[in-house]
Design brief:
EC number: 2.10.1.1
Strand content: 25-35%
Function: Catalyzes the insertion of molybdate into adenylated molybdopterin with the concomitant release of AMP.
Number of strands: 26
GO molecular function: metal ion binding; molybdopterin molybdotransferase activity
Bound molecules: ligand LQZAQKY5, molybdate ion
Oligomer: single chain
CATH topology of the largest domain: Molybdenum Cofactor Biosythetic Enzyme, Chain A
InterPro entries: MoaB/Mog-like_dom_sf, MoaB/Mog_dom, MoeA-like, MoeA_C_domain_IV, MoeA_C_domain_IV_sf, MoeA_linker/N, MoeA_linker/N_sf
Protein name: Molybdopterin molybdenumtransferase
Radius of gyration: 30 Å
Distance between the termini: 29 Å
Number of domains: 4
Length: 397
């Protein structure tokens, strides 16, 4: 047990050894959702560019206001029009989004205006500056609005459009090679023979990599021989920035991935104090980062979520971020402790408590589908009813 690397140490080792593996490219903004920004973006203009009205109403100079005073309307300003300076002692009819005329500093919404023949009175004392959105309220010229490493979301597309940007510089999409291993595995679509199971990790890893915003360069399968493993790795090396594999990293003589890595590349880490996911391997092959995930499907899932996702993020140029976790009280007790950090698949009940799925085998995947996230139980920690533990929803990955 003493040779297992602690969860946090494994995370920091992997993050520290990783670096950006892709170049940059200018891309039209409308193709940029999900891409990683390669340079800080500073606002080239102020937003809004000018003081403008937040309401349909009347613009006036605050110092002209008096209870009962009759104002005439000296101009009408719709959004998009260029206003004239406000005539002294008058008000301007103004609409939401229209520029404030020079000389006005306050807008009164039309519901608070009293029409008296062809004049207007504003009997409630306005606040000076009310209902005016000042120039630069949202963004000032030169303000940094996105930072290198940020992922572009639909909200950013709106933000950058409001700055008039048509193109931005992003990182090229990271190409991830996937290798699955095992004589017992067949691809979906083929009939199952005695002793065989379907290869579920290949499709799951492809989907996880795609969901994380990367591109699967190739997904290959190798039978349990060193030759097949090495040949597949060489093919993946020729088309990938990073390689992930599943299976073949434990101690059995049919587990070839780790042994091939020892001859082909440099091993950085093997075996972590995490359940499920113990025999994780981190290596590099001819400069290409490699992460060997354990083959049990839930071990593959957990190690992808925590370790592969982090490695791929750094290699893609993204600023790595921990998935959000929330303290949630356990709805059960477990006095037995283990010497590994554990990621129990749990659901949150109507009472707000976390309940562990009854099936926690690392070979079982339905349990993860029927759960909402992980409850992170630190090594050597008993679980006590009503005590809180970090809950990490799957939606955060
Ligand atoms: N003597 C020991 N045996 C094992 C240990 C150990 O410490 N000592 N660790 C166990 C742990 S923990 C895990 S996790 C597994 C990991 O083993 P491998 O990464 O070498 O994975 P395999 O042996 O190749 O496969 C494990 C399991 O998963 C199934 N599998 C593999 N690939 C796929 C796939 N693509 N799709 C679906 N299922 C897959 C495979 O059939 C096995 O049942 O080792 C333990 N053993
Ligand atoms: O710790 Mo192994 O990863 O599941 O069963």
């Amino acid at each position: 047990m003493s040779t297992l690397l602690a969860f946090e140490d494994a995370l920091s080792n992997i993050e520290a050894s990783a670096h950006v593996r892709v170049g940059t490219i200018d891309t039209p903004l409308h193709h940029a959702t999900g891409r990683i920004i390669a340079t800080d973006i500073k606002a080239p203009i102020a937003v809004p560019p000018s003081d403008n009205s937040a309401m349909d109403g009347y613009a006036l100079a605050f110092n002209d206001w008096q209870v009962g005073k009759a104002f005439t309307v000296s101009q009408r300003i719709a959004a998009g029009q260029h206003p004239d300076p406000l005539e002294k002692g008058t008000c301007a009819r103004i609409f939401t989004g229209a520029n404030i005329p020079p000389g006005a500093d306050t807008v009164i919404m039309q519901e608070n205006a009293q029409v008296i023949e062809d004049t207007l009175a504003f009997n409630d004392r306005p606040e000076q500056g009310s209902n005016i959105r000042p120039a630069g309220q949202d963004m000032q010229i030169g303000q940094t609005v996105m930072q290198k490493g940020d992922k572009v979301t639909p909200i950013h597309i709106g933000l950058l459009s409001s700055l008039g940007l048509t193109h931005i510089t992003v990182y090229q999409v990271l190409r991830v090679g996937i290798l699955t291993t095992g004589d017992e595995l067949v691809s979906v679509g083929a009939p199952l023979q005695q002793g065989q199971i379907y290869n579920s990790n290949g499709p799951m890893l492809s989907a996880l990599v795609t969901q994380s915003g990367h591109q699967v360069s190739q997904c290959l399968h190798a039978i349990d021989t060193p030759e097949a493993t090495e040949a597949a790795l060489n093919t993946l090396l020729s088309c990938s920035d990073v390689i992930l594999s599943s299976g073949g990293v434990s101690v059995g003589e049919e587990d070839h991935v780790k042994r091939v890595l020892e001859t082909l590349g440099t091993l950085h880490l093997w075996k972590i104090a995490v359940k499920p996911g113990k025999p994780l391997v981190h290596a590099s092959i001819k400069g290409t980062p490699f992460l060997g995930l354990p083959g049990n499907p839930s071990s593959t899932l957990v190690t992808y979520h925590w370790f592969a996702r982090l490695l791929l993020a750094v290699c893609s140029g993204a600023t790595p971020s921990r998935p959000r976790s929330y303290p949630v009280d356990a709805g059960f007790t477990r006095s037995k402790t283990i010497r590994r950090d554990e990621f129990l698949r749990v659901s949150i009940g109507k009472d707000g408590l976390a309940y562990a799925h009854a099936q926690q085998s690392s070979g079982a995947l339905l349990a993860a589908c029927e759960s909402q996230g992980y409850l992170h139980i630190k090594a050597n920690t008993p679980i006590e009813y009503g005590h809180s533990y970090p809950f990490i929803p799957f939606s955060g990955f």
